[in-house]
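Example record

The entry below shows one chain as it appears in the dataset: sequence first, then structure tokens.
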Amino acid sequence: MYKPAVEIKEEKKKPDISLIRNLPAIPTIMIEINNLLGNPLTSVNELANIINRDQGLTAKILKIANSPLYGLPRKVSTIEFAIVVLGFDHIRDIVVAVTIIETFSRKRKDDVNLRKYWIHSLMAAGISKKIAEEFNYNNPGEVFTAGLLHDLGISIIQRYYEGEYKKITELITADKHNCLYAENITLGFTHQEIGELLLEKWNLPLSLSDAVANHHFPSESKNYKLAASFIHLADYITNLLQLGDYMWDENFEFDEQVLSILGFDNHKRLENYIESLEEKIKSHFENIII
């Protein structure tokens, strides 16, 4: 289990995102959709009209809806149909996660890391939701959202701490440290803590911020160990199956306590479980990268 060096722990700073200049406000589309869904008389067409105004968001929702992990019997070609088959709540969760990622991501045409980040986020979200459903978790849609947002802090580091981001990258790739160690050495805090604080600032559910804050070590979560474990296992699976070239998860460390949290007697049972999902997961990956 990852433990930072003693000197790092003693000097550790709590990230203060209020010090980050020009921190974006909650995206307007999130406010509009939340207001609409607060009205029980809202129709599918009313919700679809708001989403369809943003072509990028529309494309991402349709890609998500057509993932093999959803197992839908026919292709989803319109937002209206996506709302019908996925439901209002899950569409809202997807919109929240996608718009937050878009808000904090650098938009450079040559930014390969942004594409890798998006692919990894979609992989983690889809796999997390699938695992949550198989474990009969009461809110797999929320797990999907947490999966999409689990590495949100990395986008913020890249955007607001560009020099430190480069140093962290070097520590991960050249010196073979894991991301939490590299972040603590460089910043004094981690992408998990930054993501947690931002989600709290925007008054998103505690279950989301807790899962984001503990996705590397779910055993440290006090109230949402299961949700954090689903995301951790999804991260582990993408790393194990080498799905995507996501630098930040190099030197990934598995939280052994996740075995008992999810009820696996040993690693062999976990391996068998992963094998049972492998075909669908790889199909999900191929669907995303098209």
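Notes for this example: Residues 112-134 form the longest helix (23 residues). The chain is about 65% helix and 0% strand.
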